[in-house]
Design a protein that fits this description.
With 234 residues, the protein is mostly helical. It has one domain. It starts with a helix and ends in a 10-residue tail after the last helix.
Length: 234
């Protein structure tokens, strides 16, 4: 997700929380429906993708649906702001790692092209595993804690149905991430395809640092979450 979209989500939260709090339009319901549609359609589209770039793109769309949950309860829950900011930080680090691995493997365009990756550059393969499990929301990662906070905010803000739908979508997303992970544990590449030749470069080492940050956010969330409270902007 580009930084401009991160800024747009934060600006949208502040607009809803301060400028539109007394509006006659039922913004919370409209955003809750938009969040539900976005996360569901993004997941459904990702199910049928074999291109890794398209899969990540549709995965990003579904993640935006989770972010919109915080906006939907911006005026109804004290957990909304901190869940949005924490989730944005954790997701940014994880998404950077996933796209960096894809960039390091320019010839691996489909899921099957990652067959046997574990047996070539183990460091790169490990980064990919952590990234994908983090995107699902597997404990003890930062995205897991971010999702837990956003789901809690939705329930606290009077949208338990939205939190329940988000949990269903999270479980469903495990399917297409596992489709990506499974081929990389194969011993060899399938006949007629080019084996993935992964590299461990300085760029990927930097990405490993980003993944370490995502894990640290999950493990040290109790200490980090209080930093996300207070005014967003002066």
């Amino acid at each position: 997700m580009p930084p401009a979209q991160f800024g747009g989500l934060i600006a949208g939260y502040r607009l809803l929380h301060q400028a539109l709090a007394g509006s006659d339009v039922n913004w919370p319901l409209l955003l809750a429906v938009l969040a539900a549609v976005t996360m569901t359609l993004g997941n459904l589209a990702a199910f049928f993708q074999t291109s890794v770039k398209r899969l990540l793109a549709y995965s990003t769309i579904s993640q935006v649906g989770y972010f919109l949950m915080a906006l939907a309860v911006a005026t109804r829950s004290d957990l909304a702001q901190r869940s949005l900011l924490f989730y944005l930080a954790a997701y940014a680090a994880t998404n950077l790692g996933a796209f960096a691995v894809v960039t390091e493997l320019p010839h691996a365009r489909t899921l099957q092209d990652y067959r046997g990756l574990t047996h070539r550059p183990p460091g790169l393969a490990a980064v990919l595993v952590v990234c994908l499990l983090d995107l699902v929301g597997t404990p003890p990662t930062g995205v897991f804690l971010g999702k837990l906070e956003i789901f809690s905010a939705a329930v606290d803000g009077g949208c338990p149905w939205l939190a329940a739908l988000a949990v269903v979508n999270t479980v469903a997303s495990l399917f297409y991430y596992l489709r990506w992970l499974a081929p990389r544990f194969a011993a060899t590449a399938p006949a007629g395809t080019q084996a993935v030749q992964g590299r461990w470069t300085a760029a990927t080492a930097y990405t490993a640092g980003a993944i370490a940050l995502a894990l640290a956010l999950g493990l040290a969330g109790v200490a980090v979450l209080p930093l996300t409270t207070g005014p967003l902007l002066p």
